[in-house]
Amino acid sequence: MGRVALLALALGVALSLGVAVVAAGLPASDLQPGLRELLMRDLQFSTTDLADLEHGKIVRHTLAARSDGEVAAVGGVRVHAGKERFASAYRDITHFKRGESVIEIGRFSSPPELKDLDGLTITPDDFDLRVCRVGDCEIRLPADAIRRFQADVDWKRADARTQAAALFKQIMFDNVRAYTSGGPGRITQYDDDRTPILPVDAFRALLKNSPYVDAALPGLGARLASIPASFPSSFPADPLPASEEFLYWSKEKFGFAPFISVTHVTLTAAGPHEYVATTRDVYSSRYFDASLALVIASDSLGDPQSFYLFYVNRSRASALRGAFSRLRRSIVERRVRASLEDNLRAVKLRLEQGSN
Question: What angle do CA 96, 98, 104 make, to 5 degrees?
């Protein structure tokens, strides 16, 4: 048989197989069509990455930084469980985030109450506020708060550290209350170093550099951009349809010392086949100027008992700018990739075993 005849035969077989696949109604991919486009266009997944995902592998990589000081990474995994199990577990954030790196965690009431912070402990290993000064402090605070630790705490007393811890919690609470009410007291500047940091501006820049947020759920970016101005009286005001929002605090291991943060979670049922969630920093005592994460839980097309879980985080840190920034970035990116894979593996195992 000549080459032309062989080619014609092969083409005919291929066409026949293609017709058979279409006739059988089998999808070309196990991913929801819109999600597949988002992953390839905005999150830089290759066709090989997606094939690996569909075969059960964890796939993760860093994303290009769009501004100085940014680091971003994305990962995904297939989970043999219903996505409703993910949504239920995510609502119970204090159990969902448990792990070796999370030292303490708690969810804020609605409206927030100071007693929500009772489970947060502050020790000398966390930070020493005795020596905290404007332009030279171990943790991120605005100038007026830093001055209060020298004016309001009697450092000669035996219980001075207890006083300082209580004042720190009060400042955190005032910030959360202002965030959820739109009232005064919101922390808009960190003055712990010689160069002030504006976390609200840093977040806006992150959001602008994360077009995949609106691609995943139209209107979500505008919702995040409007906060806290959209909370004139209660939290949350004017939420997205089929969404729920809450805040939590945590103390976590990272770098040379733990950091304490407050995080705002938005969880939305984006149609019958997907949940979309975001997390954003409301406050971070160390390391991060701002942080924005997107989570997508999307049904498998071929297996109603499975879903795909994707996590993408974009953060900004002043330590990733300036001298030796390239070296520091490479170290941070390696750590982020490794941590992302470990976390996806742990979540997959937890959900497949049916525990939060």
Answer: 120
Q: What is the pLDDT of residue 121?
A: 96
Q: Give domain status of residue 309, yes or no.
A: yes
Query: For residue 183, what is the DSSP state?
Result: -
- Residue 119 domain flag: yes
**Structure tokens of 41?**
């266009």
Helix (H, G, I), strand (E, B) or coil at 43: coil
Residue 195: which residues within 8 A CB-CB, separation 6 or more?
318
Task: Output the domain CATH number for residue 94.
Answer: 3.30.530.20
**Number of domains composing the chain:** 1
Give the residue numbers spanning the domain of 133.
33-352
For residue 267, the cross-strand partners are: 244, 277
**DSSP 8-state assignment for residue 283:** E
Pair of tokens at residue 136? 């030279």
CA-angle at 213, arms to 208 and 214, nearest 5°: 90
**pLDDT tens digits, 61-101:** 999 888 778 889 999 999 999 999 999 999 999 999 988 88
What's the alpha-carbon Rg for the chain, to the nearest Å? 24
Position 224 in a domain: yes
Within a domain: 21: no
| Cβ–Cβ under 8 Å, residues 306 and 80 | yes
Confidence of residue 20 (pLDDT cuts 50, 70, 90): very low
